[in-house]
Design the sequence.
């Protein structure tokens, strides 16, 4: 239920920003998710959709998600680069990604685990 708690925190944050600005509605929310953040877009949208109905401010909000490619560094072969889609294993707390070059799991994530609000458009 990683997606639901994330959707909830996005909901709370954008509503509090909109209220501070005295907005009547939130037209658009743009989010930036790293590909290593292990967020399922469909599931996230499904959760956010439910939460949208709880607030008038969010009823008509368009949700845009920008995906940022994760960057991986391998300890074995020193590969470093963007990873689009690779076989992976992970636990709840620590995603582990395989090096695309030597298949080692001894990799460090340089970037790509972010899940942030990029901007919101209010009215
Ligand atoms: Zn490697």
Sequence:
């Amino acid at each position: 239920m990683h997606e639901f708690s994330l959707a909830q925190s996005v909901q709370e944050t954008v509503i509090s920003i909109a209220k501070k600005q005295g907005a009547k509605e939130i037209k658009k929310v743009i989010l930036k998710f790293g590909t290593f953040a292990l967020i399922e877009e469909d599931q996230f949208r499904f959760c956010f959709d439910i939460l949208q109905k709880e607030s008038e401010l969010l009823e008509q909000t368009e949700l845009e998600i920008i995906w940022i490619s994760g960057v991986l560094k391998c300890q074995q072969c020193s590969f470093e680069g963007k990873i689009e889609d690779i076989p992976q294993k992970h636990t709840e707390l620590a995603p582990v990604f395989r090096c695309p070059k030597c298949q080692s799991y001894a990799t460090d994530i340089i970037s790509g685990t972010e899940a942030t609000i990029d901007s919101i458009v209010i009215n």
Remarks:
- The chain has a mean pLDDT of 90.
- The CA atoms of residues 62 and 91 lie 32 Å apart.
- Strands lie at 26-34, 62-68, 70-74, 80-83, 88-90, 95-97, 107-111, 115-122.
